[in-house]
Amino acid sequence: RSSDLTIEGLTPEDRGEYSCWVESWDPDRTFTAQLFILLALQVSGPEGGAVSIPCPYEEHEVDRNKSWSPWGPGMTEFKLQTSPSQREVKEGRASVRDEPSGRSLVLTIEALTPGDAGDYTCGIHLQGSTQTMDASLTVL
Fold it and tell me: What is the pLDDT of residues 30-86, one digit of tens each?
């Protein structure tokens, strides 16, 4: 037998842990599943300008390590990671700022070049897993 859970109109707030209890000979038998919502943003900025890309997170994730990094062929590799003790990190033209009051990790890239165009991933690092959001940057 199987059971299904259907969530219509899925939003980022729906992510989290869901449990299913099964009546059987073992009353403590519980099945748990983690639901991850993958978000994808399309962002653009002018060459020579700046762009800021927010990555929202939940209140219970405020004190987790978080990161932004590019991924894709030909992109400059970096990983900017924050922690509860270091809320802002800067490397070259890129910086990451964790804003706990707004529950957002913001990647800012200044002096945009065509080489900055591509895909970026934000990660919220949890126990044993990472929740992610992707953003695709176009430089105009």
Answer: 666 655 555 678 899 999 999 999 988 888 889 989 999 887 666 666 788 898 899
Long-range contacts of 95-103 (CB under 8 A, 24+ apart): 96/66, 96/67, 96/68, 98/66, 100/62, 103/56, 103/57, 103/58, 103/59, 103/61, 103/62
Higher pLDDT, 94 or 34: 94
Using a 10 angstrom Cβ sphere, with 0-12 exposed, 13-18 middle and 19 or more buried, the burial of residue 74 is exposed
**CA 50, 13, 83: angle at the middle one, nearest 5?**
55
Q: Name residue, tokens 């802002």.
A: 88
Residue 24's contacts (CB-CB under 8 Å, 6 or more residues apart) are none
**How confident is the model at residue 57, as a pLDDT?**
86
Determine the 3-state secondary structure of 91 from DSSP: strand
Torsion sign, CA atoms 61, 31, 20, 40: positive
Q: How far apart are CA 69 and CA 96, in angstroms?
A: 10
- Strand, helix or coil at 62? coil
